[in-house]
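User: Fold this; tokens only.

Assistant: Input:
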Amino acid sequence: MKIADNSFYVGVSSTGETKLGNTAEALATYIVSAGRYEDLMILDQDRKEILNTFGVLIDKCVDYEFLLELRKTLIPKQKAVASGRRPQNNPYIG
């Protein structure tokens, strides 16, 4: 599955749900921003779990193609967080 196959995603944290866009940039930014404080879950538009995190790291992902696409954007953002740089603006709200 490609990330753009869904019209939106839902980010789930202990504080509630956030509607996310359908781009790798939107998902990666949400993961490194909200994941700095807790574990997260990403659902597709049908509310099926796509992935969950352990902080800013992906713990499980049900679709390998989706994971490969997301990693291209996510890994540079994870490295920025690990080096202490703050991620740029948070355009994940869709």
